[in-house]
């Protein structure tokens, strides 16, 4: 495994390093946003659902836009640089907001940056490796991303323990963001077959295989129950965990995901994408049910966060590797644009619905709905997408 990771192209290593620093900056802030909203700005689950849903929905539209235009031009690097730059400067501004609308604006700008970079970055990774390395490459990228998500909360916890206020923690996130921007300028442009100059820009599924379209429909169902992870942090806080403990739980989740992302995603190179992803989605449903049922913030909650990290490690890289397997090389940017659009646009109804179920019924009702969507998606992936691939041939 170590030898295979070392053999990955320089581009993959560079993008993975960028993700490490970017998530360190992002996750200094991310676990503290729901606490900041609740304790400083006096906003509840409905405001959180609106903020996360709107921000992710707009981001998703931009992911398709950037992916299609990257295919059109044959250039992906410019989108990567612009995306990391916008997000890096937007996140720290949360520290100077005085209302939840200000947080919404900052999260909106942050997600705009993510929207500009996500599909071109995923296409860049896919174009830089052989098909048999896709699970490994995306898993390694997610591992470094998650290691950054370990460093960020630990930095935040250390700053809070030292008496630094929430607002100042947000402002200090500018430091790793500047490192990200410097590294982004060093990313080389991959060989990417551009669309013919007279061919119109295609914003539809034209040229994308039926199996990919079925996969997107099932992904939409899974995403409908996959609300913002901020609800997990809010759940931990509701069960009695302090701000410091919440950040440490998030760090534990990220550490487990970081350690296991590479081997579990690489497993899909041998065991099959759909098989691996179906098991991961089913395990996700179980994790949601457990978190929804827990009575308090004791050792079981720590175990639940670690288990959720295992699930996340198995599904993140595998989802993206399956996208690359299902589409032709010249449409890879568009395909990742559609993948990111679907996985993001449904976060708006998912987060709004989750917040409504939480406030109107109970936290367990919200988590149970998410689990039901995940179980249904796993079933359809196994028996509809997998069996229907390429006119009846089974997809591993």
Protein topology:
Elements: H1 2-6, H2 10-29, H3 33-39, H4 45-73, H5 77-90, H6 100-127, H7 134-161, H8 166-172, H9 174-184, H10 210-224, H11 230-238, H12 243-271, H13 273-293, H14 299-326, H15 332-345, H16 347-360, H17 363-385
Helix pairs in contact: 2-7, 2-9, 4-6, 4-15, 4-16, 5-6, 5-9, 6-15, 7-12, 7-14, 10-15, 10-17, 12-13, 12-14, 13-14, 13-17, 16-17
Quick overview:
It comes from Dokdonella soli. This protein is mainly α and 396 residues long.
How much strand?
under 5%
What would you say the CATH architecture is? Up-down Bundle
**How many helix segments?**
17
Number of domains: 1
Order of helices and strands: HHHHHHHHHHHHHHHHH
Question: Whole-number average pLDDT?
Answer: 79
Please state the oligomeric state of the protein chains shown.
single chain
Percent helix: over 70%
Protein model, in words:
The longest helix has 29 residues. Helices cover 76% and strands 0% of the residues. The C terminus is likely disordered. It has one domain: Up-down Bundle (Growth Hormone, Chain: A), CATH 1.20.1250. Helix 5 packs antiparallel against helix 9. It has 17 helices and no strands. The two termini are 22 Å apart. It is an all-alpha fold and 396 residues long.
Keywords:
396 residues, mainly alpha, Growth Hormone, Chain: A, 17 helices, 76% helix, 0% strand, disordered C terminus, membrane
